Amino acid sequence: MLTIRHETQLEVIAHCVSCVPEEACGLLIGDYASGLVHHVVPTENVAHSAMVYTVDPAAFLAADKEAARAGFDVIGVYHSHTHTEAYPSPTDVGQAPDPGWHYVLVSLRDIVPVFRSYSIVDGTVTEELVITQ
Amino acid sequence: MTVSIRIPTVLRPQTGGSASVAFDGATIGEVLGAMVAAHPGLAGQVFSADGSLHKFVNIYVNDDDVRYTGGLETPVADGDEVTILPAVAGGAA
Lengths: 133, 93
What we know:
The structure holds 2 protein chains of 2 kinds.
Chain A: E1 2-4, H1 6-18, E2 25-31, E3 36-43, E4 53-54, H2 57-69, E5 73-81, H3 90-95, E6 102-107, E7 114-121, E8 124-128, E9 130-132
Parallel strand pairs in A: 1-9, 5-6
Antiparallel strand pairs in A: 2-3, 2-5, 6-7, 7-8
Chain B: E1 2-6, E2 20-24, H1 28-38, H2 43-46, E3 57-61, E4 64-65, E5 81-86, E6 89-90
């Protein structure tokens, strides 16, 4: 389960739209155990691609240190799919680093953005409930 | 030289839940070697079968990726902070 404020969801969607035609990506910062998102950190997609993303490692390091100082963890990652549905691709599944993370997908395939979250454990994708506050 | 190592959430089950551990060594290779000796579950997550750093993990001494500062031979000093982070990538492709 992922719990996120409405304005934070909008921030994620706005970032994803702003990066079109490239995929956007960013980090979810919050409470690892409960899945409560405190804030997000938009990051550069250093792959600069419409098909793949790589979170800027230096931005990840900075976000991780800042999160730890604030008593949070990096609890997941969001990225956009510009022309496909909001579901993890085989690439996403194969490279998912943490079974405890939340993997948010934003699809911009249609005019109305779609925001979904998943867990990825040993290659198995499970959609999770997103509670908007 | 004693340095602290910050453990990412994905690896904390291998450290009994600890977010930070501390080990001695003169180089990052020695420090990580001491860490995996104490926490054997980390070995396959940090090192490849040939003993090099795993390609899906990034190791930092303070703010520097050790791949660009001498790899496992990178020297460490008392008080340095080591961070282990997974690479985060994917995409629709």
